[in-house]
Amino acid sequence: MSKNRMLGVVLALLGVVLFSAKAVMVKMAYRLEIDALSLLLLRMLFALPVYLLIALIKKPKQGQPISLRIYLWIIGLGIVGYYLASLFDFLGLQYIKASLERIILFVYPTIVVLIFWLLFKHKITRRQLLAMLLTYFGIVLAFSLELSLQGADALLGAGLVFLSAITYASYIAGSGWLIPKIGASVFTSYAMIISCLCVILHYAIVGNFDLMNYSTEVYLLGLAMAILSTVIPSYLVSWSIKIIGAPSFAIVASFGPISTILMASYFLGESIHALQWLGTVLVLIGVFFVSRKD
Q1: Cα-Cα-Cα-Cα dihedral of 101, 18, 263, 142, to 10°?
Q2: pTM for the whole thing?
Q3: For 130-148, what is the mean pLDDT?
Q4: Pick from 192, 185, 156, 193: which is nearest to 171 by CA?
Q5: pLDDT tens digits for 6-15?
Q6: Is the dihedral of CA 189, 193, 194, 198 positive or negative?
């Protein structure tokens, strides 16, 4: 493996672990009695200045002006990707464990394949189809025990997280052709600024406007989510994809659910049943074969 590719793998692993920590921090914050929208707003408010600064410093690739069409795509992907995906994810985490959230969210590569099939007529190979069936069977296994324990709440939480996976997959599918045009850092900064503004607008319309009355721990968790699980990994992932490509990144990202399960066990005391471990393994195998190049 070349040094450049090794760097891409290391960046991918670091980005995946930091992203995975977000679910654990969200669950820790919920124990301190904060609602999902207020917590999401804290995350975006702490992250927004960093994205604004980088957007001012970094210029589009080759210094070319960005067309109106590309700006509209960035706005659309910013809304669909990190605004809706984060909103659905934070809402879903109110009802299900962090470890289960990461397993469900990790099916997004299979959804990307389906999006390309539906919109761009990309053929789904027999191997990809079997891998997707295996992935969703793994989800059913991992989720079945939780459903029997929590009932409707688990179903609602899983449904919201699955919506998060769909919106994030749409973001990934749509951003593939934009990053080469304007650069990974510029695209990430612009899209995340749009997402932050959407969350602020959402809170301005329906929020409780009680943002200054939480404990110090809530603000520290919001800051940690913003920097450690949003800003830093968003750039690490973009740079990694630029170096090793999206399919290879998706394979490396298989470590995400495992890291979340380990962190949730250590920090939250969450336990995972043998059936859920089996489901996790099936999901990882399925995503590996969906993402693997022919």
Answers
A1: 20
A2: 0.87
A3: 78
A4: 192
A5: 888 889 889 9
A6: positive
